[in-house]
Design brief:
Order of helices and strands: HHHHEEH
Distance between the termini: 28 Å
Strand content: 5-15%
Oligomer: single chain
Length: about 100
Amino acid sequence: MNFGQTKFNKAKKKSWGNPLFAVSTLANLAEQIGLDKTVFIKDIQSDAINVLLMAEINAARSLPIQGFPSLVLENKGEYHVIPINYLDWEASYQQILSLI
């Protein structure tokens, strides 16, 4: 885990009880990891970010997945859903290897 991720996890723990996706919660987390809170709020509420978010959502909806989180491998223009095995990562890894 890198230093930024550690700071994020500590900041996230301090935010429990707040609605996770509330702008104020996200802005507080951003500030706690060293981002400018005012700039973050302006950016997260911008039309440009909304356009990018909707593009990501539409791209995810076009994939052969049923939920989140999901792992999809694209190989030679074909998409393959990789079952996530949290207890045995090697099973997922072996499936990936068999497809590439």
